[in-house]
Amino acid sequence: MDEEQLRVFVELVQQYFERQTGRPAEVGSPHLGDAAALPMYDFTGVIGISGTRQGCVYVTARREMLRALLLQIGETDVSDRNLADLAGEIANTLSGNARVHFGADFMISVPVIVQGGAHAIQVPRSVKAYIIPLRWHKQEAALVVSLQ
Amino acid sequence: MKRRLMIVDDSNIIRSMISRTLSQHDLEIVATAGNGEEAVRRFMEDQPDVVTMDLTMPRMDGIQCIRKLKAMNPRVRVLVVSALADKATAIQALKEGAQGFLCKPFSESDLSDAITELLEEDHHG
């Protein structure tokens, strides 16, 4: 991943929050993460990437942020099922939108949902994982991109 | 007479958002489905005239599903609602018989405009 490709994901996540809520997310400086200590909040949506690029893109967020986001888009059912669904949908949207830049051979899987911060997403140690920290509605989240 | 709508998306919240928005249009929501296989089954049972279709779904993806629905009823109107934002995917969906393509993330007004255009084209076409 080069700086320009990383910037694609930064712009996509900014556009997502702006378009969906009218309020942009604060995006922190992207940085390399330790494969053994990647961020995990309450709900995580993971998209597997195959084709010309291989790896994963995941979005992890606190319950309070997802709850506020659901209410903002007019969804009153803020059950865990919908919070998990939203984490997956954000990851799916960002990964799918990235095909504008990476092309149709940037193949994305359906989302896999992980609930609970005690779990960890395993990414190969040989592949760099970049963390893009986010803050929306005073709550933290992160987009993690690990692509060969 | 209200047109009959089926909403196909593997996300419950997207189905709910589409349902809330399009219930304000001249449409009766007759079915929802969370994957392509379920959509084919519900299509045979409920015979919708209009379908909103996600593309990335488990079991059967949206492109395969459009192909099957069009084989059963070539007159069905399909609006693809997908995060796959590349031009090649949109062209493929239109070649398979979809009439419209709306990229996620979308606002309620984006969706309203897209379905209005789809239904007007049907009326004029």
Describe the SSE topology.
The complex is a heterodimer of chains A (148) and B (125).
Chain A: H1 3-21, E1 26-27, E2 31-33, E3 43-51, E4 55-61, H2 63-72, H3 80-97, H4 99-102, E5 106-108, E6 112-115, E7 129-136, E8 139-147
Antiparallel strand pairs in A: 1-7, 2-7, 3-4, 3-5, 3-6, 4-8, 7-8
Chain B: E1 3-8, H1 12-22, E2 27-33, H2 36-46, E3 50-53, H3 62-72, E4 77-82, H4 87-95, E5 100-103, H5 108-124
Parallel strand pairs in B: 1-2, 1-3, 3-4, 4-5
Helix pairs in contact in B: 1-5, 2-3
What key attributes describe this structure?
heterodimer, A: 148 residues, alpha+beta, Chemotaxis protein chec, globular, B: 125 residues, alpha/beta, five-stranded parallel sheet, 5 helices, 47% helix, 22% strand
Q: In words, what does this structure look like?
A:
The complex is a heterodimer of chains A (148) and B (125). With 148 residues, chain A is an alpha+beta fold. In chain A, 34% of the residues lie in helices and 30% in strands. In chain A, strand 7 (129-136) and strand 8 form a beta hairpin. In chain A, helix 1 (3-21) crosses helix 3 (80-97) and helix 2 (63-72) crosses helix 3 (80-97). The radius of gyration of chain A is 14 Å and the shape is globular. The mean pLDDT of chain A is 93. Chain B has 5 helices and 5 strands; from the N terminus they run βαβαβαβαβα. In chain B, helix 1 (12-22) packs across helix 5 (108-124) and helix 2 (36-46) runs parallel beside helix 3. Chain B has helices spanning 12-22, 36-46, 62-72, 87-95, 108-124, and strands at 3-8, 27-33, 50-53, 77-82, 100-103. Chain B starts with a strand and ends with a helix. Chain B is globular and about 30 Å long. The interface between A and B is medium-sized, with 28 and 24 residues.
In terms of DSSP E residues, the strand content of chain B is 15-25%
Radius of gyration of chain A: 14 Å
Q: Name the shape of chain B in a single word.
A: globular
Largest interface: A-B, 28 and 24 residues
The averaged pLDDT of chain A comes out at: 93
Termini separation of chain A: 7 Å
Going by helix content, strand content and strand pairing, the class of chain A is alpha+beta
Q: Beta-strand level of the residues of chain A, as a percent range? A: 25-35%
Poorly predicted tracts of residues of chain A: none
Number of helices of chain A: 4
- Per CATH, the superfamily of chain A is CheC-like
Keywords (chain B): Phosphoprotein
InterPro entries (chain B): CheY-like_superfamily, Sig_transdc_resp-reg_receiver, ST_Response_Regulator
Protein name (chain B): Response regulator
Pfam family, one (chain B): Response_reg
